[in-house]
Each structure stands twice: as C-alpha cells, then as structure tokens.
Amino acid sequence: MQQDWVLDVLADLRTFARQNAYSALAEQLDDTILVAAADIHRVASCRAGKKNGHERQAGSAHHWAGGGENP
C-alpha cells in the first residue's frame, strides 16, 4: 500500500519516545499506530470495493472505526 510509510514514521517516533523515556508518548503512539493501520485498511478496502462495483453501506466504516463490529 502506498500509505504504509506513515506506519513506519509513527514506529520511528515511538522508538524515539521509548529511548528517551517519554513513556506516555510511546503508549499514545502505540494506539496511534493501531488507529492508522485500521484507517489505512478501511480506506483501501473501500477503494477496492468501489473498483469492483461494490458500495459499502453508509456509516459502516464509521461504525467499525469507532470500535463497533467489523463491516
């Protein structure tokens, strides 16, 4: 995926935070990496669905990103 680079940047920032005893920042970056990965996957899935002629239900991606069930 073209957007995977952002995960590498976040991981580098997390490594820096851990090495410099910024524990709260490192923990926040752990969460941020998970959110970013989920968003990248969601957008890629939506784009793939549109290319294949399938449209997702309105709100399903939002529900999943908010911690609901997977679409």
Verbal overview:
Residues 48-71 are annotated as: Disordered. The structure is a single chain. Mean pLDDT is 81; it is low at 60-65. 70% of the residues lie in helices and 0% in strands. The chain has helices at 5-19, 23-51, 60-65. The chain has one domain. It contains three helices and no strands. The longest helix has 29 residues, at 23-51. It is mainly alpha-helical and 71 residues long. Helix 1 (5-19) packs antiparallel against helix 2 (23-51).
Short description:
With 71 residues, this protein is an all-alpha fold. It has helices spanning 5-19, 23-51, 60-65.
State the helix count: 3
What is the N-to-C order of secondary-structure elements (H for helix, E for strand)? HHH
Low-confidence runs: 60-65
Share of helical residues: over 70%
Number of self-contained structural domains: 1
Mean pLDDT: 81
User: What is the beta-strand fraction?
Assistant: under 5%
Look at the helices and sheets and give the structural class.
mainly alpha
Rg calc: 15 Å
Count of individual beta strands: 0
Termini separation (Å)?
A: 21 Å
Oligomeric state of the chains? single chain
Shape: elongated
Major beta sheet, specifics? none
